[in-house]
Amino acid sequence: MSKWSGRTKGFVLGYQIFILFIQKLGVPAAYLLLYFVVPLYYIFLQRSRKSLYLTFKEVPELKNSNLQRLIFKNFFNLGKTLVDNFAILTKNKSKYSYVGKGEEYLIDLINKSQPAILISAHIGSWNIAGELLKEKGGMINVVMYDGEAKRIKRLVKKNIGESNYNIIEIKDDLSHLFKIKNAIDNKELICIHADRYIEGANTITARIFDKKVQLPLGPFAIASKLNIPYSFVFCFRESIYRYQFSATKPELSNDPQIIANKFAEILSEKLSNHPEQWFNYFNIFEKK
Amino acid sequence: MILNEIIKTTNEVLVEEFEVEESTIKGKANFRETLDLDSLDYVDLVVFVEENFGVKLTAEDFQTVVTFDDFYALISNKINE
Q: What is the CB neighbour count within 10 angstroms for residue B79?
């Protein structure tokens, strides 16, 4: 699954056009624009299509599904989710709502000023979850790759204002590890995606649908080394302005393998139930 | 805290945490290579220094660390700051 450069696809101009539509014409108009954009992405992003196809092929529940149709739907959902990610930072925010499962665990962490690692994946929308958590008063730090972080920060700042969470950029100088440690010392929450890694990163082996996969070691190692609770957090789009949020009961473990195994188990379930919102365009089953 | 105490405590922890022979830990030896440090090991080092000496290390601090002597000096300077 690796070979990821740490950058997310998408053109700055494209994002800016969408932001303009959201701000001037509203979210449904931005969705309409997707009907012109998504087919082009579907045609030209062959590698992403292939990766999704290879991933979906391993999902037992999708055995009898039309995978190409599912991939198109997936691209479309990515577009809608990106629109929502920006829209929730604008005056449209009040229109968004969610149903939550396990939300009380995170509220409890926030109320007790208990630092924790929220482990998630490129499935559904973390941005929406981050915004919903911010409403509860928690300080969220999202760990992401340098190139990806800078672009998003720049875009949001230029077009909307300050983003709704703090971004910790993963850098070669390891400064992110110290920033994560500082955030934990300040009793804040850290969100890390644990379904994708860049070449050369340390990985840990887990099993998804009884097949070996490599996951980045970092998120699991940090939770275990710093001995802080971890929770698996996901947020899926249900319909327009409506999201479904879930968080598992925070647990402690000093063994990264135990955490990785549990994460792989829950990730298998999410991939089976929400393939149309699986936005990790790198074949997770590819051997390292 | 005197330097000898810092060296003794540090070496004891490094031998246990990084599973290296005590004889390989020498003042002039390369810190990173001897301990075969990867990025996540720095988290262990930061936690160990904080727990044992009550001081916080930053990413910039490690830029000056090449040998074990540099690491001991770093801790000592931080304690005396």
A: 14
